[in-house]
Amino acid sequence: xxxxxxxxxxxxxxxxxxxxxxxxxxxxxxxxxxxxxxxxxxxxxxxxxxxxxxxxxxxxxxxxxxxxxxxxxxxxxxxxxxxxxxxxxxxxxxxxxxxxxxxxxxxxxxxxxxxxxxxxxxxxxxxxxxxxxxxxxxxxxxxxxxxxxxxxxxxxxxxxxxxxxxxxxxxxxxxxxxxxxxxxxxxxxxxxxxxxxxxxxxxxxxxxxxxxxxxxxxxxxxxxxxxxxxx
Length: 231
Fold this sequence. Notes:
By secondary structure, the protein is mostly helical. The protein has helices spanning 23-37, 43-56, 61-73, 77-90, 95-107, 111-124, 129-141, 145-156, 166-177, 181-194, 199-214, 227-230. The longest helix is centred in the last third of the chain and has 16 residues, at 199-214. Mean pLDDT is 93; it is low at 1-6.
């Protein structure tokens, strides 16, 4: 049997190190999976089984990744980070731990680390819209507007773009930072068309009204109101 990666991308959502895992390690991994899928999940017990699995087979990237997820469920963010890092070290082409690490870094406002991780993730799977979007967020917060714009536009070109309306909000914010208010307004209005009932939408309507009042953009028909506003 010859296994090839789909879509001709270097990264994979499946770690091929799993194929080489000894029987005992696989049994502990599968036991942990079962515990986590139960009606009443048992993350603490599952974590112990996963720790057994990686002790038997330190290159078990999928087990390290699941251990990271399980530790997050146990509110052990630092332990989760270590597990995800071990997963990356075990299989550098396994994309799952990169994503989880990036989320942790974004939440902690570690922008440089988040930018590096999401850049690696985007290289492993260029069609992963969230990787480009997260990279844009990191670079935006680093003040690197050119890189942020490039990344968010890359996210918009992926198959995931329809599920990422927030890319329009971010691109609008980037363009506004660059002083391009008419183009920023277009992006904000694109966001309002697909997500009119969010708290972000409220803020964008106020921003557009302010820009119209200042004369930096032309006045346009009012954006769709939220259900709450219609009451």
